[in-house]
Amino acid sequence: MIEIDGSYLEGGGQILRTSLALAAITQKPCRVYNIRAKRKNPGLRTQHLQGVRAIAKLCDAKVKGDFLGSTEIAFHPGELKGGRIGIQISTAGSVGLVFQVLSLPACFCERDVEIAVKGGATYGKFAPPVDYINLVLLPLLEKMGYRAKIDVLKHGFYPKGGAEVRMEIKRVGELKPLCMEERGEIKRIGGISLASKDLQRARVAERQVEGAESVLRGYEGETEIKTGYVNSLCPGSGLTLCAECENSFLGSDSLGERGKRAEEVGREAGEELASALASGACLDEHAADQILPFLALASGESEVTAEQITAHCRTNMWVIEKFLPVKFEVREGKERAKVICKKI
Asked: For residue 219, what pLDDT is reported?
């Protein structure tokens, strides 16, 4: 059994998600202890628990310790079969994090996977918005042969959630390695600015765009950030930006909160994207972290440039190397870093 210390480095929920995903794929049982040890509320929260149970359904796993607040999980995977899975999230837990735990093992199932999520947030705290996954992560993964579709039927915001999302993940069998060193010229900057309908009179979605554009003026290429107002269980807003370049996609996002001006939400996302573009790298810091397990399972060696290597990245590398015969090499430069995933 592979033993994983959940308090290592960054010490968050990513350790659990990556461990369970790779355990399901490799058919290696694992024990994860000290789960989320470095968080204010350690142990399994609702979205983590639902992720554990969903991936257990995907591979008919036997699980011990799957309850709220649990700091230790023993996971014994069975075969990855696929099919339809329903997930209920009673809080504003992140729908994006549910995708994160299921996205990789789902593509190695015997048949395609359909996931229906009810509840949770499409824009939540400390988690990738579903719009970021659609605009940035999935286009990058398509370069590796990965195919998935996410449809948002209803958006949910912190603190009540209430989203409704459908996901379809195709079986691929084999992932192609990814080699991206130069992002190339910026073709266009796009994005989605969303707010609940009760914020329409205050023009929150438009003001988020204005804040982002105040930072991004001067970049070459077309800029088109869409706005929308949606029905939701509670007031909320969020902005996701994406720069489509010749060879890659880079993104950023920001969450609206009480007391935070809409223009500041936009400027925050705009500055994050501007920083990623200024590095000249092919991956922003969030994509660099999220794509690592896919690189490790690809059929050959991958080399990518990243805006920076975060604690999340280094933690993920450590977990992946526990399960797979790969070695990550990081070469940090003045403005960007290069990550090489070698087979051993």
From this structure: 79
- Two tokens, residue 220: 């070459």
Residues 155 and 10 in one domain: yes
What value does the mean pLDDT of the chain take? 95
Strands across the sheet containing 62-64: 2-5, 30-33, 72-76, 62-64
Q: What is the tens place of the pLDDT at every residue in 83-98?
A: 999 999 988 889 999 9
C-alpha 326/C-alpha 320 separation (Å) is 8
User: Can you tell me the distance from the alpha carbon of 290 to that of 109, in angstroms, rounded to the nearest whole number?
Assistant: 20
Q: 284 and 136 in contact (C-beta within 8 Å)? A: yes
DSSP string, 31-59: EEESTTTTSSS-S--HHHHHHHHHHHHHH
* Average of per-residue pLDDT across 230-245: 96
C-alpha 269/C-alpha 271 separation (Å) is 6
Tokens (6 digits) for 334: 């003045």
- Tokens standing for residue 281: 């790298």
> What pLDDT sits at residue 159?
87
Res. 221: pLDDT tops 80: no
Residues 243 and 261 in one domain: yes
What is the domain-level CATH number for residue 101?
3.65.10.20
> How high is the pLDDT of residue 46?
83
Residue 15: CB atoms within 10 Å: 26
pLDDT of 223 reads: 85
Cis bond upstream, residue 159 (ω within 30)? yes
Residues 171 and 238 in one domain: no
Domain span at residue 77 reads: 2-176
Euclidean distance between CA atoms 225 and 242, whole angstroms:
9
Is 155 an active-site residue? no
Token pair 């990855």 in the structure block, residue: 80
Instruction: Check pLDDT > 80 for residue 144.
Output: yes
Q: Note whether 207 and 125 are same-domain residues.
A: no
